[in-house]
Design brief:
By secondary structure, the chain is mainly alpha-helical. The protein has helices at 12-18, 22-30, 46-52, 56-64, 79-85, 89-98, 112-117, 127-137. It has eight helices and no strands.
Length: 153
């Protein structure tokens, strides 16, 4: 299968861009679709599209199927950067919990926090943007301690 999706049943791009549609995502993946595929319009990674539009169920399914959290689009945006720029608080929380790198930068040198603080000109800044910026400004939670080795007999 190519890098670009074959738009299985004509539904997959619509499922990501217009609504969460887990059955369409499942059909795509079951038909051999690759979670790191790009959309059929602009070559955007599917996870970046889902994150930007706040399609949480779709994003979860793609991540569970192996989509890279750090895959970038043509301007260097990761899923986390896209979600932050578009004010998708629940998506940002999910991506951070899944291990997305809050320090990733796009081709302009901007991080997700930068985009949350100053969203693109076509997006109206919302209260969610401020919450996202605060979340991204906070230090990440500490990594879990390694499990203790079993006692030696």
């Amino acid at each position: 299968m190519s890098d670009y999706i074959n738009d299985i049943d004509g539904l997959f791009d619509k499922a990501i861009l217009r609504r969460d549609d887990p059955p369409a995502v499942r059909r795509f993946l079951d038909a051999g679709g690759v979670a790191d595929s790009k959309d059929s319009w602009g070559g955007q990674p599917l996870l970046v599209c889902a994150a930007y539009w706040g399609r949480l169920k779709t994003a979860q399914m793609l991540v569970e199927a192996g989509a890279s959290l750090e895959l970038q689009n043509s301007i260097g945006s990761t899923a986390l950067i896209g979600a932050a720029a578009s004010g998708q608080l629940a998506m940002v929380q999910y991506l951070l919990g899944a291990g997305a790198d809050r320090r990733a930068v796009d081709k302009r040198g901007k991080t997700a926090k930068d985009w949350a603080e100053a969203p693109p000109s076509w997006k109206t800044k919302t209260a969610a943007h401020a919450q996202i910026a605060a979340l991204l400004a906070a230090p990440p939670p500490p990594a879990p301690a390694p499990a203790a080795a079993p006692p030696q007999p």
